[in-house]
């Protein structure tokens, strides 16, 4: 699966294969990152709905309240603005809150706190009062969720200066990026691709890989003919598409963006300049989605290397479909391969 | 409808009075299993009318030093309000939401706090920050427009002025909660307007505060209006103070123009919070004498008579009357305070008349701990534009 894909990064940092690795899921890795961060730094507090006794609806925070107490892992009243708003106050007093939003679409009530305060406080105070808050948002579809449980809401966050927006696609990154997010003095929206919660990798919580800084994309699969630019839940789709394309004689490079803000123009453009073609793949709607920004950036920076317009394979511009129809909405391998076909191969001879 | 109604007879449910063939009801006197007794609402309820001290017997016993201090701050505060309003007319402030008429609340809120406590002001509460000791230049930065906040909140324990209504309230709760978890006996006092109490954040903040028993005091300045909208379009609650009861915290109603009464009620709430007694909601009944801001035309929604009626209940005059009645100050003493206020206003005017120092690079420097590569590019672009502008100005001079 994704974890066994070759990893050659722009920063050329090889993945450290953990000792005594056993299969672990992304959900477990996220929980472990929370635990390790809490153990290391007493300022780290987890708060959210059902995160205590229950361990969260996805069981990500399982065991934290038992280990650290209710004051460190707190079941809050049901109020997303209140959760994030009180987290702001806690951060003002020197704590490092990690907030769990139960689902993508249930984070919306907190948006005012996010846009008006979390994103702006450092700038407002000329750096005097940064807010080291991590906001974990399980996002995306593919789990058969009924309405309000499958939104890809990243574009809202990406469009809000002052926030970092990070999303892991592998078990290793889920751990490493979350540790980096919690350690960051800036607010980080940590978007968890919920359909990958159960994805597995040989990863040992006892010897987790080094924590990479936020803001670097990674080449998950090397290729020469075209670049698939993707993140989060769409990475496995792109890797599968690249494998299928190989059978047809096309070598696709797959870049996992990992961080939407900051955006790693360097790694992305280096890849596109090598291959001359690019397709952006994500679940979020296309119009005004992150792919629009990415396609524009690539075009602005790599125009003379491009053999074809940058294409996008995204969700349709519709409210997220009901579970029985979601497969028509989600970008799948065929749609990715179709887009690759449309990259004007005939022009190059 | 019969006018003569018997009071409902007391029915012994264990002995049904129905026909003989109805089977006897099984005894079932317990409450629903999920019901649990909650707190007695009685002690949480606000008084029937706003608590007052000035002009009553009780004011006779008030500490003379406190009265004099409140008076001085009120006079300075009134002068600060008129000066800041004047600065908008001179183009030195972008906008000013005056607290003229509300000085008693502003001043009392500042004076009840210890140095380690935190104040969470709204856009209308620069006076509270100034009365707490903040340099008015720093308090007015947002309204001058050279930056969004003019001070380090942690250094002065004053949160940035909050413009989005009621959003500062959950911050106060979170901060107070964090302090309590750390074992620090810090209290947060958060200010909000009557209109702000309709916002969801008001509800969420009060609920969190009560559940967490956070050491917070919420001060609602009910000044009659949210811009143009009067309170009866805002709420159907018996009073704003009554809202506290639904959260399980005490609600207190106070005459917001009686500085001594506001100080007393707030001080009690602060002491209670500090001692672990949890949050309190205080509603201060006051009046916004000026328009919402200098950009507003209040004649569109209220009559002059109403304003005049409130001018007769002026917080500064109330306090002067109390000092006179107690023989604690004579005309010379009042004149001396007014002179201090003039000096304070003159200094503010002078400093505001100097052009603000602007640093465009600041626009990019504080968005993140480290500017992103994209922001670095954009900063370089602006720098180049400014350099080019400077160069062309240089040519013009030559
Ligand atoms: C969330 C939000 N909505 C609207 C506004 C615009 N606005 C600014 S002040 C104001 C009235 C607020 O009235 P109130 O809470 O009574 O405070 P006051 O201005 O009377 O002090 C409004 C609607 C705002 N600042 N924030
Ligand atoms: Mg008002």
Automatic annotation (TrEMBL), chain A:
Domain of life of the source: Bacteria
Obligatory cofactor(s): thiamine diphosphate
GO-annotated biological processes: branched-chain amino acid catabolic process; response to nutrient
EC number: 1.2.4.4
Span of domain Transketolase-like pyrimidine-binding: 24-199
Keyword vocabulary terms for this entry: Oxidoreductase
GO molecular function: branched-chain 2-oxo acid dehydrogenase activity; magnesium ion binding
Any Pfam family: Transketolase_C
Ranges where the record places region Disordered: 1-24
Composition skew (Polar residues), residue ranges: 1-11
Enzyme category, top tier: oxidoreductase
Protein name: 3-methyl-2-oxobutanoate dehydrogenase (2-methylpropanoyl-transferring)
From TrEMBL, chain B:
Protein keywords: Oxidoreductase, Pyruvate, Thiamine pyrophosphate
Chain positions covered by the region annotation Disordered: 1-43
Gene3D superfamilies: 3.40.50.970
Cofactors required: thiamine diphosphate
Domain Dehydrogenase E1 component: 78-341
InterPro entries: Alpha-ketoacid_DH_E1_comp, DH_E1, PdhA/BkdA, THDP-binding
GO MF annotation terms: magnesium ion binding; oxidoreductase activity, acting on the aldehyde or oxo group of donors, disulfide as acceptor
Keyword field contains Oxidoreductase: yes
Any matching Pfam family: E1_dh
Keyword RNA-binding attached: no
Protein name: Pyruvate dehydrogenase (Acetyl-transferring) E1 component subunit alpha
Species assigned in the record: Streptomyces albidoflavus
């Amino acid at each position: 699966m994704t974890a066994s894909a070759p990893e050659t990064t722009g920063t050329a940092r090889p993945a450290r294969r953990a000792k005594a690795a056993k299969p672990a899921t992304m959900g477990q890795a996220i929980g472990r990152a929370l635990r390790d961060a809490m153990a290391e730094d007493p300022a780290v507090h987890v708060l959210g709905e059902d995160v205590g006794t229950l361990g969260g609806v996805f069981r990500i925070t399982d065991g934290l309240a038992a280990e650290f107490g209710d004051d460190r892992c707190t079941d809050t009243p049901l109020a997303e603005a209140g959760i994030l708003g009180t987290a702001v106050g806690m951060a003002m007093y020197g704590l490092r809150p990690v907030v769990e939003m139960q689902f993508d679409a249930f984070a919306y009530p907190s948006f005012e706190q996010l846009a008006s305060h979390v994103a702006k406080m450092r700038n407002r105070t000329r750096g005097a009062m940064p807010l080291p808050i991590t906001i974990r948002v399980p996002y995306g579809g593919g789990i058969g969720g009924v309405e309000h449980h499958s939104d890809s809401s990243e574009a809202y966050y990406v469009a809000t200066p002052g926030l970092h927006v990070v999303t892991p696609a592998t078990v290793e990154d889920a751990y490493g990026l979350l540790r980096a997010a919690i350690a960051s003095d800036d607010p980080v929206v940590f978007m968890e691709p919920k359909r990958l919660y159960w994805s597995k990798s040989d990863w040992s919580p006892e010897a987790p890989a080094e924590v990479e800084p936020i803001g670097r994309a990674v080449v998950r699969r090397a290729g020469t003919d075209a670049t698939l630019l993707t993140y989060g839940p769409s990475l496995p789709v792109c890797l599968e598409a690249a494998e299928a394309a190989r059978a047809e004689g096309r070598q696709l490079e797959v870049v996992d963006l990992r961080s939407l803000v900051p955006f790693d123009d360097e790694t992305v453009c280096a890849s596109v300049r090598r291959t001359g073609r690019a397709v952006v793949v994500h679940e979020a709607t296309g119009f005004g989605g992150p792919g629009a920004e990415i396609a524009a950036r690539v075009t602005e920076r790599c125009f003379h290397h491009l053999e074809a317009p940058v294409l996008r394979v995204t969700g349709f511009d519709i409210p997220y479909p009901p579970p029985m129809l979601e497969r028509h909405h989600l970008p799948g391998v065929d749609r990715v391969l179709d887009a690759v076909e449309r990259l004007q191969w005939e022009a190059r001879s | 409808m019969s006018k003569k109604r018997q009071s409902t007879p007391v029915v012994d449910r264990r002995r049904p009075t129905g026909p003989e063939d109805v089977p006897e009801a099984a005894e079932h006197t317990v409450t629903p299993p999920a019901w649990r007794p909650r707190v007695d609402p009685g002690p949480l309820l606000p008084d029937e009318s706003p608590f007052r001290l000035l002009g009553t017997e009780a004011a006779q016993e008030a500490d003379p030093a406190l009265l004099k201090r409140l008076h001085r701050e009120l006079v300075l505060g009134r002068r600060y309000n008129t000066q800041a309003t004047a600065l908008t007319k001179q183009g030195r402030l972008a906008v000013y939401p005056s607290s003229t008429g509300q000085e008693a609340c502003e001043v009392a809120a500042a004076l009840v706090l210890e140095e380690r406590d935190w104040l969470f002001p709204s856009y209308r509460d620069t006076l509270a920050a100034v009365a707490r000791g903040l340099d008015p230049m720093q308090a007015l930065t947002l309204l001058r427009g050279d930056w969004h906040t003019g001070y380090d909140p942690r250094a002065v324990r004053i949160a940035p002025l909050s413009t989005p209504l009621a959003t500062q309230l959950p911050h106060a709760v979170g901060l107070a909660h964090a302090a309590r978890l750390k074992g620090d006996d810090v209290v947060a006092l958060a200010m909000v307007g009557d209109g702000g109490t309709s916002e969801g954040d008001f509800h969420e903040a009060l609920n969190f505060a009560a559940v967490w028993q956070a050491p917070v005091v919420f001060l609602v300045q009910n000044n009659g209006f949210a811009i143009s909208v009067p309170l009866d379009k805002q709420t159907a609650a018996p009073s704003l103070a009554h809202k506290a009861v639904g959260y399980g915290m005490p609600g207190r109603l106070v005459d917001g123009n009686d500085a001594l009464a506001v100080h007393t009620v707030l001080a009690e709430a602060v002491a209670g919070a500090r001692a672990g007694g949890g949050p309190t909601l205080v509603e201060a009944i006051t009046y916004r004498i000026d328009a919402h801001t200098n950009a507003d035309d209040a004649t569109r929604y209220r009559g002059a008579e109403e304003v005049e009626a409130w001018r007769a209940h002026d917080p500064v005059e109330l306090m002067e009357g109390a000092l006179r009645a107690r023989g604690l100050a004579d005309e010379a003493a009042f004149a001396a305070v007014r002179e201090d206020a003039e000096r304070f206003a003159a200094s503010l005017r002078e400093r505001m008349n100097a052009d603000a120092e602007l640093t465009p690079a600041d626009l990019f420097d504080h968005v993140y701990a480290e500017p992103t590569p994209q922001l670095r590019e954009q900063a370089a672009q602006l720098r180049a534009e400014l350099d080019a502008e400077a160069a062309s100005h240089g040519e013009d001079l030559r």
